[in-house]
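Quick one, probably user error.
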């Protein structure tokens, strides 16, 4: 029987951080993970360069049924705290855009930093260790694991969400939450590309690889960034962002020319260059291929003087408020995050401790707190881990 103060299940971003910080408080920690490596998602994050935080992190960057929940933890462990840690380990990094901090080298710099912090307090992740059973005892929790039984005062669930099952994601954290009487909010894939199956599919296919700066809106939320046409539909940062707000069946509105007053521009072109064909005019705004395809497939290209005012209005409408109804998303196979999860109304925002079962803690993505794209999800992992680590 291994007897310890704290068992943390999940050696991902949140679990590693919590283990290091709890160890710094002198707590004896066991960190277990069923995968053969710790922090696999850290390694694949940010296209291999780990977008580890965001300079402009604030509660408004997070989705949750309980939007106030994340505030306290984010305020007590900020992006500046994590940057200080990164600087202490002399990890070279840069701001790519919009406050997003990336490693200059590889994501492994961040993983090595967390493992070094763990090692400094005597924590080495127990890998390829599965947890078969958890029981509440008078003094805490008893676990049956593939490495034998364990007993602890505090049990931390840091098993993340459902995205990328091939990287070790499971619904284990939700199962534990259910076992101890927690409410679960429906889960769905977030920060995920859209699939398109209607007549738009051909356009997406033909434009595959083309990226356009757009304003994308759905359910009252808008993001200004690139969209990317793909063989299967639409992706790119603006699409990933809006996917977290989209519900099946809904339309997404895409303004393909967010900096242009399109009706005024069309009127001016009609006046100045009446014989210019629509596709020639659009080629000044988009790539030639995209201009030709949309001029022909959407509008039938002809000299601009030949369009009626009503037709010009329709063209303007289509370009600045293109309505797209995705067939669905690529799902957990490629999603960066899982929306929903453990209902935060039953968890202390100060300590991350369960309000249903004392000594049980939930941190990171398993909770119903999901960040926007841009380093916010890792900042939540660090901040929630820090909050729990002060109390476990
Ligand atoms: P995380 O998923 O990191 O860790 C969970 C751990 O629990 C894993 O090690 C897993 O093996 C283990 N586990 C699961 N089930 C278990 C079980 N039954 N028993 C034992 N162990 C179990 N975010 C960001 O801010 N910037 C970025 O650049 C990116 N990039 C990015 C790219 C890709 C491709 C993905 C999929 C995701 C991102 N993210 C991101 C999101 C970010 O990776 C994610 O939000 C955090 O890793 C969540 O941290 P957690 O520790 O909660 O879960």
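Nope, works fine. Designed sequence:
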């Amino acid at each position: 029987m291994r007897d310890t103060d704290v068992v943390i299940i999940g050696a991902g971003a949140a679990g590693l951080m919590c283990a290091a910080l709890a160890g710094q408080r002198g707590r004896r920690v066991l960190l277990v993970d069923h995968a053969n490596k710790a922090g696999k998602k850290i390694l694949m994050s940010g296209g291999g360069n780990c977008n580890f935080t965001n300079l402009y992190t604030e509660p408004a960057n997070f989705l949750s049924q309980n939007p106030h929940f994340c505030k306290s933890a984010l305020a007590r462990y900020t992006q500046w705290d994590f940057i200080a840690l990164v600087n202490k380990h002399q990890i070279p990094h840069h701001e790519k855009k919009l406050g997003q901090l990336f490693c200059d080298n590889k994501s492994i710099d961040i993983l090595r930093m967390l493992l070094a912090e763990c090692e400094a307090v005597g924590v080495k992740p127990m890998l390829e260790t599965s947890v078969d059973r958890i029981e509440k005892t008078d003094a805490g929790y008893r676990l049956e694991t593939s490495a034998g039984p364990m007993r602890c005062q505090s049990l931390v669930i840091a098993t993340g969400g459902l995205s990328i099952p091939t990287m070790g994601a499971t619904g284990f954290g939700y199962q534990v939450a259910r076992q101890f009487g927690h409410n679960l909010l429906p889960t769905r894939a977030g920060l995920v590309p859209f699939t398109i199956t209607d007549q738009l599919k051909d356009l997406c296919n033909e434009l595959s690889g083309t990226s356009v700066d757009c304003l994308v809106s759905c359910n009252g939320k808008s993001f200004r960034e690139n969209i990317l046409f793909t063989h299967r539909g639409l992706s790119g940062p603006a699409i990933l962002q809006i996917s977290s707000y989209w519900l099946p069946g809904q339309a997404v509105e895409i303004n393909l020319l967010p900096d242009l007053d399109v009706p005024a521009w069309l009127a001016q072109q009609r006046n100045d260059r009446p014989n210019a064909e629509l596709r020639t005019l659009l080629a000044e705004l988009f790539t030639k291929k995209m201009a030709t395809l949309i001029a022909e497939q959407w509008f039938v290209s002809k000299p601009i003087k030949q369009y009626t005012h009503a037709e010009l209005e329709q063209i303007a409408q289509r370009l600045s408020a293109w309505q797209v109804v995705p067939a669905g998303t690529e799902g957990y196979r490629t999603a960066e995050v899982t929306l929903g999860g453990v209902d935060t109304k039953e968890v202390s925002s100060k300590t991350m401790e369960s309000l249903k079962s004392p000594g049980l803690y939930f941190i990171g993505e398993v909770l119903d707190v999901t960040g926007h794209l841009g380093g916010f999800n890792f900042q939540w992992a660090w901040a929630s881990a820090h909050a729990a680590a002060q109390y476990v």
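Residues 9-15, 33-35, 40-41, 44-46, 50-51, 130-131, 158-160, 163-164, 168-170, 172, 336-337, 364-365, 375-378, 381 surround dihydroflavine-adenine dinucleotide (CB under 6 Å).
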